[in-house]
């Protein structure tokens, strides 16, 4: 998005931010503490990434367990290798197909946060199936479903959500989430496998332990979805102070655009402008509908700037002039 603000002082501020970033780099614990205290977005993404890291090794263990049981006996090793090759091959084909044919439409229609929330739901269903019956079909279905969702939808969505962080903390936040947080989750997931086997005595307990983790991940993802319009506003406001553009039409799904209408109708002119700049970057049809609604509800003080934004979107949307 291209905020309409004075950028004459952006360069000195950018230089100061660069010096601040260099001074803070290398202090992982300090960086984590600062981000945890100051960024609601970081806290939510931390929880989702930790849960994702936890559940990966737990599901992989259960899949290996049922695959090993299903291929026991003479020639079992060859059948196991054939099974692994077939499952991995079809999953790769499925990931490519979902990325090309489904993911983009999913982001545009239900939004990035809600698309990312499908992942914990798939894990929840997969572990539920394995908890009911620890079988090869349940294991293959759970592994295929989670791999498809993670690689084709969730991981790309997470990388887009990193753009909501201000530029001065974005690389640090992404590095922490993708590095220490996910690795810590993976380590804890392997510990959970050992606890299930050595202390609880059954591979079924891996699934039982995973169910509340998947449920907590789903709750955190839905909370991120509900707070997404406000987080988007906060990100745009923070970045506009430095002349830093928040780009990406995919960030503005229909529900988010509708949720920004009350912000456009705010009596605070500064907040109204930020919301206008966000909505103006949505698909023209969505932007025009939202701005037209806001123009009818906006207070007298801000109605002229809403109408001006609507005119700009209409001008941008017209491909060819009308000839009467």
Topology:
Elements lengths: L9 H15 L3 H11 L1 H31 L5 H35 L1 H5 L1 H15 L3 H26 L5 H32 L5 H37 L13 H6 L1 H4 L4 H12 L3 H14 L5 H15 L7
Number of helical stretches of at least 4 residues: 14
Strand count, sense and barrel status of the largest sheet are: none
Helix/strand order, N-terminal first: HHHHHHHHHHHHHH
Rg, Å, rounded: 24 Å
Query: Into which percent range does the helicity of residues fall?
Result: over 70%
Unreliable runs, pLDDT <50, ≥5 residues?
1-26, 320-324
Straight-line N-to-C gap:
35 Å
Rounded average pLDDT? 82
How does this structure look, described?
With 324 residues, the protein is mainly alpha-helical. Helices cover 80% and strands 0% of the residues. The chain is built from 14 helices and no strands. It has helices spanning 10-24, 28-38, 40-70, 76-110, 112-116, 118-132, 136-161, 167-198, 204-240, 254-259, 261-264, 269-280, 284-297, 303-317. The longest helix is centred in the last third of the chain and has 37 residues, at 204-240. It is elongated and about 80 Å long.
